Amino acid sequence: MKLTLRVWRQKGPEDKGRMVEYKLGDISPDASFLEMLDVLNEKLIAEGEEPVAFDHDCREGICGMCSLVINGTPHGPERNTTTCQLHMRKFKDGEVIDVEPWRAKAFPVVKDLVVDRSAFDRIIKSGGFISAPTGTAPEAHSVPVPKPDADRAFEAAECIGCGACVAACPNGSAALFLGAKVTHLGLMPQGQPERWDRVVDMLDTHDDEGFGGCTNTGECTVACPKGIPLDVIGRLNNDYLKASAGGRKK
Question: Locate the 2Fe-2S ferredoxin-type domain: which residues (predicted)?
Fold first, then answer.
C-alpha cells in the first residue's frame, strides 16, 4: 500500500504544533497501525530526522496506551478496537490519513502524539479502590453476588482507561471512564465501604482536573474500544445524587 500521512508534530508542551505530511510506500495490509508508524520512524531516522513520538506498550489491546485520533476518530474507523489492534487493511491504497493526539484540556500534549493522562491516575487515587481485605482468592460461593450484578461489574471492569471517551466528547468529559469505575466497584460487596465517599471524591477530582461536564451526546461510548455502555453514567449520577442527599458515610 501507498499512503500519505499527515501527522501532528509538536516539540513540547509550549510549542504551537503543526501537521506534517509524509509519504509511505510498500506498507503491508496486514501490518498494524503502530507497525506502520514504526516503519515511518525507521524511515525518518534513516533520513536523519526526528522520529514521531507516540505511546505504546502491550500492543494487544489491553493497556490503552496506544491512544491516537485517526481521521478524526479516537482509535480509528473500526468499532471496539484499540489503535494497536487496528490493521492497515481497514484503509485504502493511496489514502490520506490524519494522525493526531487526544484533544482535551485535561490531557496536555507532551510531544507529538503523546499526551499526559496522569489526571486519570489522580482520579483513581482519590477513590478507585477498596479497603476490604480480600486475602487469597476466596471460594467461589463464599460471597454470594447476584449474577446480573456480577455480569454488569465485569462489563464495566473492561474499561482500560485509554481516554478515548474524553477525546471523543465535545465537552472533554471523562464521565464514561468515571462511570465504569464507580459501577464496577459499586456492584461488588467489597466495594460497599467506600461507595458513597468514592463517587463524591472521584467526581470532585474529575472536575478539579479540568474535565468537562457530561451532556449525554453519546460520542464516548461510540469511541470506547471496549464498548462500555452509556448507562454507567446513569449509575454514576444516581450514586452521586444519593451520596449528596445524605447517603455519604464517613
Answer: 1-103
Q: Look at the block and give the residue holding cell 495490509.
A: 29
211 contacts 174 by C-beta, under 8 angstroms: yes
The full 3-state SS of the chain, as one line of letters, equals CCEEEEEEECCCCCCCCEEEEEEECCCCCCCEHHHHHHHHHHHHHHCCCCCCCCCCCCCCCCCCCCCCEECCEECCCCCCCCHHHCEHHHCCCCCEEEEECCCCCCCCEEECCEECCHHHHHHHHHHCCCCCCCCCCCCCCCCCCCHHHHHHHHHHHCCCCCCHHHHHCCCCCCHHHHHHHHHHHHCCHHHCCCHHHHHHHHHHHHHHCCCCCCCCCCHHHHHCCCCCCCHHHHHHHHHHHHHHHHHCCC
**Looking at the whole model, is its pTM more than 0.70?**
yes
**Phi/psi at 116 (5° precision):** -90, 110
Task: Using alpha carbons, select from 183, 179, 174 the residue that is nearest to residue 214.
Answer: 174
For the segment 83-106, what is each residue's pLDDT rounded down to a tens digit? 999 999 999 999 999 999 999 999
Grid cell at residue 20 = 506534517
- pLDDT band (50, 70, 90) for residue 247: low
- What pLDDT sits at residue 144? 85
Predicted pLDDT of residue 132: 79
In one-letter notation, the amino acid at residue 18 is R
Polymer length of the chain: 250
